[in-house]
Fold this protein.
Amino acid sequence: MIPPQEIGPPKSSSQSPRSPSGAPFLSISVTDPVKLGNGVQAYISYRVITKTNLPEFQGPEKIVIRRYSDFVWLHDKLADKYKGIFIPPLPEKSAVEKFRFSAEFIEMRRQALDIFVNRIASHPELKQSEDLKTFLEEDEEAMERIRSFETGIFKKPADLLQMFKDVQTKVTDVVLGKEKPVEETDPEYEKLKHYIFGLEDHLTETQKQAVRLVKRHRELGQSLSEFGKAIKLLGACEGDSLGKVFAELGSKSELLSIKLQKEAHNLLMNFEEPLKDYVRCVQSIKDSFSHRANAFRLHCELTETTKLKEINLEKLNLMRSDKTREAEIEYRELKAESEEATRRFETIIKRMNEEIVRFQEQKTAEMGLAFHLFAKGQAKLANDIADAWRSVLTKIEAYSLSSGHD
Amino acid sequence: MMGPEIASGFDSPPEREEMESLALSDASASAYRSAMSSIPASISASSDGDPLLAPPPTLHFPISSSASGHGGNPATSTASSFLDPPSYADVVFSPFDSHNGHGGCGSGADNGSLLRSDSSPRSARAAKSDYIKISVSNPHKEQETANSLVPGGGTYFTYLITTRMRAGFAANGDGESEPVEFGVRRRFRDVVTLSDRLAEAYRGFFIPPRPDKSVVESQVLQKNEFVEQRRSALEKYLWRLAEHPVIGKSDEFRVFLQAKGKLPLPTTTDVASRMLDGAVRLPKQLFGEGAAAQVVPQEVVQPAKGGRDLLRIFKELKQAVTNEWGGVKPLLVEEDKEFLEKKEKMQDLEQQLSSASQQAEVLVNAQQSIGETMGEIGLAFIKLTKFETEEAVYSSQRIRAADTKNVATAAVKASRLYRELNAQTVKHLDTLHEHLGLMLAVNSAFSERTSALLTVQTLMSDLATLNTRVDKLEAASSKIFGGDRSRLHKIEELRETIRVTEDAKGCAIREYERIKENNRNELNRLDQERKDDFLSMLKGFVINQVAYSEKLANVWATVAEDTSNYVRGNS
């Protein structure tokens, strides 16, 4: 498990927070996946335990039951309200039916959800969101109501307006014959975009190989198991002392098979998953790119429209038309909107600049740990293998001596 | 037998050139091949999957590498810095390498290892051979001169067979102290001839099986591959013959290796003329005409051959059926309980060997795959490192790039270690395939015994019939006063036949006993050899695993150590 770095003690489902009393902490665990419901409707529910001493929360400890779609709700709310911030990514939505309830998949998801929530809780802005509090504290029925109200076709008016504006912008572009949507030309931003897209490619490839490595471990384990069995049977043909050596080799082979399966699991959770998570984080950054692009377009649009309106107003002023009053009101409204749009855009830029620094640092720490666990696991596996075979070697040498060989 | 024929013959330069020009396209075989090269650093450069392991320019690597142009120049140069100095691998492995001299990697490697003093059982046996080294090389295409059965075709390959004998066995008998070396050209048909003559002369022995004729493969495989495969198989075969304590000293074998020009062994007459011959003889035999009708006593020392001995085949078949269904116990049965038990044990062994051999192959493939994937990961990380370094804006990125590089280096090292491990594993576990192949020889030897017994039984049955007829005739003729000329004449003829048949029976029994003795000796020999080989195999396999696992552990432990700072502050 790779917990994010921030205030507070390392979160853990079973340990109590280690920070000295008085220092603010917010620690969350996602635990105890339980399968509920039947057939097609079946789903997994998780226990979300919040431990905190922050006054904003209801109490020192709160336990709620949440399901995957609740996490999705939280994610989407934050994505909507905190544009420019790289919202922590969720594990993938659906899997092939067969695996949806496999122990491995559930554990991977649980771990990913745990990381998700804790990243939010340690983000300086996100942790203050009302939606987080709702998520952590509302009882199950309330949560369900909130969730079903807000997802699907039920959208808040503000969202509708934004959607409309986005569509409007696109339509305008088409109408005005602008084939290429307006885009920023900031070279540093260009560099960042280029970096992120390139990074995604490299990471995806690496993650793919990691998946393969897991599979290879399993296959090697499987083959050692079969080999061990066959060797034992062959040894039975040889009989007595030599047969015993065969049997020993066969047994160790089977033992190592188990160790390999274990390491495969370890690789999956502590090496492949972090890489996958890395990819998801990068994709979350790409989402921010879209938001920034939209915000930019809107800002440009409104700025331009406002200018036009201003010019128009001046014209009307000069002509002393009775439409002036109306136009002035319109102008002021538009100007406010434009300023709002510009402000939003600039917020996104500011956030992104801070986020990227944070992202890089976070990733260095997380990948560093992942590398460490990977190397440690491989080293341990290799040592276990060496130990197992060494013990067989002793038996072989003993047999050699006793039977006058070599 | 192992799927891909493992290439061999690294020791003599001409062979190596052959290897290069007849490059095997089989990736796994080429991985094995390169892994078994004499260069201790053992870079396996021939696999397309890891361009990172392309040999750096400083090291001379004779085998043409197919390292794809990944274009990662930093990658290649970093690869060279990853190489362990040659002494490292040497230090750990030279004592073990000598044990690895045997196995199905081809007698080329075997021959080479015999030049050092080894303690592996295989090389100990080889040291008792009259021969020091046999190599097969230089395949040469020739045109069929006489009419060939294959219309429009008529090309075949000859191979140069170079032999080095131990001192004192030189044909010229000059008592020279240096070993004698000579070479002849042979074609595959000659090998078949040799194999057939040995089978006749050494009934009951466990004669190493010769390479297949494999007509199908010669069509399916590329010409180069096929020729190379055959060359390698021939070498292995000849060397196994040389190692056999009895056959290795045989004249047939010596003649094959030494006699220049046409092979002076009687060829197995092709089926058509045999059939013809047999068809001509049969009526004579049936009508009892003179000499053709007589069973030639000496012939019974050979099993009835298709085509030629039709009558005998019919009789023996009839006898076999009688044995099975007749309800009458034949006059001589296989009484040796020990033999029957042994036979069962052999069958059981064959089954287990087959299964173990299969699983060994699966294991080897799995080890191969994991090494390849580890290499792919290393490569992916190298690319990532490069990318991150190029685009780095923040110091955290540079740190991460350095960490990633660490892991990449380790992964590449690990990949190489897996491949080396696997090359050695292949050598050791090949013992399983070898001994599985020998089961063929065992089965042949046992069936020779059965067939010899059948011959005896048939003759005894014949005798019984003949004697009955004589008795009947005598009884009938004694009733006629003064004797019955024709009957008496007939009785004389029959008595003559009985005499000859008795002789034949004598021969057959002696032959049967001889084969039994051969079986017994060979079984003992094989049992001992198998025990020795298996012990060596297990030991080598395990030592290998230990050595490489230790190396792998070291590689990863270093990385774990270097990244341990990331653990601080976390649970």
